[in-house]
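Subject: complex prediction, re-run

Hi both,

The earlier run crashed halfway through, so I resubmitted it with identical inputs.
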Amino acid sequence: MLSRAARPALRAAAAAPSRAAAAGPSTAATYATLREIETRLKSIRNIEKITNTMKVVASTKLTRATRSMNDSRKYGEASNEVFKSAETAAAEAEEKKSLVIVCSSDKGLCGGIHSGLSRTIRRMYAEQPAFDLVIIGEKCKAQLQRTNGKEIQLTFAGVGKDIPTFADAQAIADQIVLLPTEYTDVKILYNKFINATSYEPTFIEAFSEEAIAQSPNISAFEVEDESLGNLREYSLANSIYWALAEGHACEQSARRNAMENASKNAGEMIGKYQILYNRTRQAVITGELVEIITGAIASEEM
Amino acid sequence: MQLKRSILAKIQSAIINNASLRPFNPHPSAKMTAAWKAAGLTYNRYLAVAARAIRRSLKEDKRIVAERRAVSELRFAVWKNGKPGETKDLAAANAAAMAESASS
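This time it finished cleanly. Structure:
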C-alpha cells in the first residue's frame, strides 16, 4: 500500500527542482510552485512518519523473532543430529524427483529478501533438471508463478503476520506428505540469518523415508522400519519450523533496515525541500517588494 | 480443576498403558500399528492432538499463553498445470484428508 503511494511522490520530487528552476522568472508560476512545494513537503513528512513507525514496529518484532529463531535453530539442529550420526545422504535413485519448499512470507516492504529466494530458484532451474515447488508466502508465489507456474504444487498463505508456530509447520508438513508424488529428495529454501544486514538463501535437506532407511549408520539406532515414516514427517516439520522462524527473523530485520533507509532518504528530501521552499518564498517576497517600489517610484514621478 | 486433573490422569494412563502410543519404542511388546495410525492420522497430527490436550489441561494463565502458540491461520491452494486451485483453510483440509484416509 505504502510503496504504491510513495513512488509517484518520489518521482515527482525528483522532477521538481528542474521544474521550479525553469518556472523561476515568472511570478505567477512561482506562486504555484510555492504551493506545490508545500504540498510535496507535507506528503514527504507523512511518509517519513509512516516509515519511522514501521521501523519501530519492526525493531520490536525483531527481538522476539530473533529469540524464536535461536530456539528453532536448536530444534532443527537437534533433529538433524540423528541424520548426521546415521550418515544419511540423499537417495541416489535413477529417476530423481525433487521438491523444493520455498519459505517466504506474505508481506513486502522489506528490501530484496523475497526476490533473493526467487532468484535462487530461477538459477537452479537454469542449472538443474526440473523439480517441483511448494511455496509458503504470497510474495514468492507472485514472483515465481510467472516463470515457474507449471512446477508449483502447493502454495500456502497467511504466514508472516506473527512469529511462525510449530503448529503451522506441522500443518504444512502434513500437507506436503499428502502430496500424491513420491519425492526422492526434499529441500527447504530459506533466508539464513548471518547478521543484521546480510542474509543468504540457504537450503536445508529433508530426507525421504528411503534415504533414511538406506543410510549406512541407521542400525546404530534401534528403530522399527515403520516408525521411520514418522521420523521423516516429524523432522520435516522441524526443518520447516526452523526455516520459517529464521526467515521471519530475516524479514523483520530486513524490514527494519529498509524502513530506516526510507526514513533517512525522506529526511534528506525534507531538508532539500525546506531550503527550496524558503528560497522560493524569499524570491516571491523580493519580487513583490520590487513591484511595490517600482510602482511607488513610478507614481511619484508622475 | 477436578476436570483438568482427570484429563491429565487420562493422558498419563493412556501413555503408560498403551504401547502403541510410544512410536519410538525400540523393544515393543506387541507388534501392531499404532491406534492413531489406524485412525488415519499422520505423526504430526498425532503430536498436535497430544500437544493440544496438554495445553488445555494447563492452568488458566499459562494456558492462554500456550494456546496462542497453537493458532494457525494458514490457507493453501493446490496447483494443477500452472493454475492455482481454490484457496482453502489448511487446518480444516488436513482434518478432512485424514478422515478420508481413515475410512479407506
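The first helix of chain B runs from residue 2 to 17.

- K.
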